[in-house]
Amino acid sequence: MTSLRKAVGWIAALWGAVAAVSAGAEDFELRSGVDVLLRQQGPVRALHFATVSRDLGGGLHAGHSLYSAAIGDAGGLFIGGFDLFQRVAITPDWSLDIGGFLGGGGGARAYYGDGLMTKGQITLNHAFPNGLKAHLGAGWTRVGGSAIDTPHLSFAFSRKVGVGIAPGHGRSPISSGATIASAKLLSRVYLPVASARRDSPGNLNPMYLVGGEVTFRGASDAAEVFFAAAAAAAGDGGGYADWFVGPRFYSDPLLGGRLRAFADFGLGFGGGGDVDTGGGLMASASAGVELRLSPAYQIEAGLMGVGAFGGDFRATAAFLRGALRFDEGKARSRPDKSTAARHWRFSTGMSYQPSHPGFRKPGHRFTGSDVALIETGVDLLLTPHIYFNASAYAAFAGLAGGYGMGTFGLGLAVPLNQRVSVSGEVFGGAAAGAGIATGGGLIGGGKVEFDYRLRDDLSLSIGVGRWISRGSARPWTLHAGVKIPFSTAHPN
After folding, report:
1. What pLDDT is attached to residue 31?
2. What percent of the chain has pLDDT over 90?
3. pLDDT in tens, 91-140
4. What residue numbers bound the domain in which 69 lies?
5. Which of 38-42, 230-234, 365-369, 408-412 has the least mean pLDDT?
6. Is 169 part of a structural domain of the chain?
7. Which residue pairs, CB below 8 angstroms and at least 24 apart, start in 45-49?
8. How many whole angstroms separate alpha carbon 206 and alpha carbon 253?
9. How confident is the model at residue 11, as a pLDDT?
């Protein structure tokens, strides 16, 4: 019941984030920065954060943030959740933000307990003529289940980015600003190079990861920006996850436009399990080839290297990606270009996982505790009824700090009437942390959801499901939240 009581208080916090997407404006603020914790209460010295938010009107902003351990010895600590703040103008160039963050997560054995993070902050902002903003903040951060209960200083930069979207599925979005170019499934094999295990003797063995990637492009087909995230599903390093962002550059097309070479580099954060990434800051570099099977589908393969700046982890890797491509470079360069719309659904809410015998590893201190997680996902509609889903989960209640999941699924949605629809989905992915007995990380399962449409761009959703693992964890799951349909424009 403790998890349920905390969930009720948490649900109110997601409505600001819901409005941030459903309002449908084109400008989003992308912010990146560091919170320096002023009290040394554990292995975490500073947290990096990446925030996407927008103005709801009257200076009230809402959005989502991802926090990652950046300095100290807690690489693999990830926390995700919701932001809400009020911006007060002082002069045309100066303003003040007052607000906070509420979310969940954990990892890297940084703490035990619920995983709920709360943060209050006042931030001074300065706008530069080139559109960049600098932010200097002060506030208080508390992470449940840890010793972290400290004042912090915050340093960040941000920029507004225009995105061609429209709320709902009945309006035509305008192709402008940044364009979502592709969505990809990926698999990687990490071959650690003389990398010692963090908490046990010997060196790391090969690690097998699954994940996803999304890319963004401007006017050129020769360069893009990628964001990729992956988690260990088999092999060594159970509980490890990483994410990278950076530029990717392509060669001129070969074989009649079907083949291109590419190279990229990225910065990000990673860690968890027995992988020693120090503070968590990591870098990657890769090269490979892209084979276009059709204008919409492509496969990519190549080699990469990853390494941590502050830890012992270094690895060479091979990767394979399958991509759904949304636009064509030739179409973007035509003066008479037309656009096509892609339809999506953003979802956010709570997943509740009742404990069962074998849910946690034998002897774990919190065996028997039910778990509540923040659930965030996106559906890409392949047809009016068939969709592809990607979702991420982070624990915030139930003495499961550090427990997280990432899944990819395929679903079928069927309308029952004008307002009610039912959907069924099968999924696979990775899950680990907090002693959950997944047997290495790989999971698979399914769920059924019922959606009630309040308006064209907002629905309520409830559901039930179950997943199984190679270990003894195989919980039933309950889901409640909201879904927000939107559309994006792409040259064709």
Report:
1. 95
2. 54
3. 999 999 999 999 888 776 655 567 788 999 999 999 998 889 999 999 99
4. 27-162
5. 365-369
6. no
7. 45/70, 45/71, 45/72, 45/279, 46/70, 46/71, 46/72, 46/279, 47/77, 47/79, 47/141, 48/269, 48/280, 48/281, 49/156
8. 34
9. 38
Instruction: Mark whether 328 and 343 lie in a shared domain.
Output: no
Tokens of 316: 């060479």
State the DSSP H helix or E strand holding residue 112, giving kind and residue range, or none if neither.
Answer: none
Amino acid identity at 12: A
Mean pLDDT of 165-192: 78
What value does the mean pLDDT take over residues 148-154? 93
Tokens of 361: 């590893």
Tell me, yes or no, whether 200 and 89 share the same domain: no
Q: Which H or E element spans position 449?
A: strand 442-455
Q: Return the half-sphere exposure (C-beta side, CA atoms, 13 A cut-off) of residue 337.
A: 19
Length of the chain (residues): 492
**Count of Cβ atoms closer than 10 Å to residue 283 Cβ:** 15
pLDDT, averaged across the chain: 86
Instruction: Kindly report, residue by residue over 13-23, the tens digit of the pLDDT.
Output: 433 333 343 44
Nearest to 340 by CA among 194, 179, 190: 179
How far apart (Å, rounded) are the C-alpha atoms in residues 455 and 473? 38
Place of tokens 């035990």: 112
What distance in Å separates the CA atoms of residue 350 and residue 391, rounded to the nearest whole number? 12
Distance CA 401, CA 391 (A): 18
Output the six-digit token pair for 441: 């990380």
- Residue 59 CB burial class (10 angstroms; 0-12, 13-18, ≥19): middle
Q: For residue 186, what is the domain's CATH number?
A: 2.40.160.20
Together in a domain, 246 and 129: no
**CA neighbor of 326 nearest in space, from 181, 184, 229, 227:** 181
Going 261 to 389 to 176 to 326, the CA torsion angle's sign is positive
User: Of 79, 235, 187, which is closest to residue 142 (Cα–Cα)?
Assistant: 79
